[in-house]
Design goal:
about 240 residues; Methane Monooxygenase Hydroxylase, Chain G, domain 1; 9 helices
Length: about 240
Amino acid sequence: LIKPEQYIAALTGVPLLKQRLESHYFALAFKENYENTLNPLENILESCEAIKGSTKLFTILFTILNVGNTLNYGDPQRGNAFGFKLTTLAKLNDIRSSTKPVKTLMQYICEVIYEKSPETLQIIDELRCIENVVRTDKQIIDSLLQKLKMGSTKIKNVIELAKKNPEDPLYDALNEFYYSVEPKIEELDQFYNQTLSVFKDIALYLGYKEKEVANVQIQDLFKELWKFVQSVEFNRKTLMKML
């Protein structure tokens, strides 16, 4: 036999060849897939905690609600609102006064807050972590986590097959690897569920209804909020130059 044929012949004699190769590939890719799942989840959780813990953001949102209720006073549908959707924030830069000097509603709200408490508008530093999440794709996180869980299950099945041949070192090698990574995958799965639960609470906090939360995309929510934070910072700097 020529060398390529000898190589193929040798491979065909290796027990559980396909399972060995798949297990080896899973082990090689484990660290990268694990970190690529964990890191965005940590960023999401950090951003959610920053939002919930920001008294400045709460004050700004509460002011927006009060201004909105004042403008809609007497309107049975839009007046006396208890909250508003996050998508409302983008419209604040579109609503303009009819008298001169022309101002957007966003400018007016920032001026009202700045006159009473200039430091309240300084939210960009405590919410800068949001910028790390605006491109987060939950589908990628789901796919990577599923890959880790399925890979772990396959490893467990291969261990059972390798156990039938005591002389094969595959059993000991995979057994050690499996029991080192399985707890990490279980913890990661729990952390995933915890993070999504916290995200759901934040979505409700930011005005989404219970029935809408399941359809809220992570990157969309944080993208809307980050644009708002940047808009607040722009108006704050403008007011500092003017006053």
